[in-house]
Amino acid sequence: MKKQGKCNILGVSVPEWLSESNEKNERIDLCLDYEHVEDAADEDEDEVAALLNKAVSNNKYHYLLDATRLFGDDVTEKDALKKAKNILNPTEKDGKTVYKQFVFTTYIFTIAELLKGSQWEKYEEDGKVHTIKRVHNEDRAYSSHYTPFLKEYGEESEVFESMRNDLLEQLKNGEIQIGGTDEEEKAFNAWKKAQKAA
Fold it and tell me: Which of 22, 27, 92, 168 is the most exposed place for a label (fewest CB within 10 A)?
């Protein structure tokens, strides 16, 4: 699926995982969180609706900004974050949040779509065929992946192939595991082992 259009910039931060990545890779990236305007909460909805819609919403995305490209090679992570927040973070006016806006293109594909036709697509258990719909790592399970672009970007097939290849490589290298749970992963591996032995 492709979403393309005006987006609300929700804020800029350097979460712990990104700070560790920056240190490891000797770079300074900032995490810009955004949502497509079409997915934004209705300003007029009541407090209960706003809270519950936030609980089930999965429409927030992030884009990594290279701080050295924005502010020069000599900038520190702390200074880059401060400068970016001043420019990009939302402000308050008359009791309402005012978002800075920009055009993003976000490509979202389900795990099942990305795995289709691969050796990780499905498995059999008790005579039933199960399609793999999730993958997981130590932290969480994923039912879809996305890739964001600044401005408009129209090469959907190119993006899909890139995302698919990245996912298959991560599975091959053991960076992520098949299935949404350890039990599903074990069932898949047992079926693959039986396939090889047959």
Answer: 92
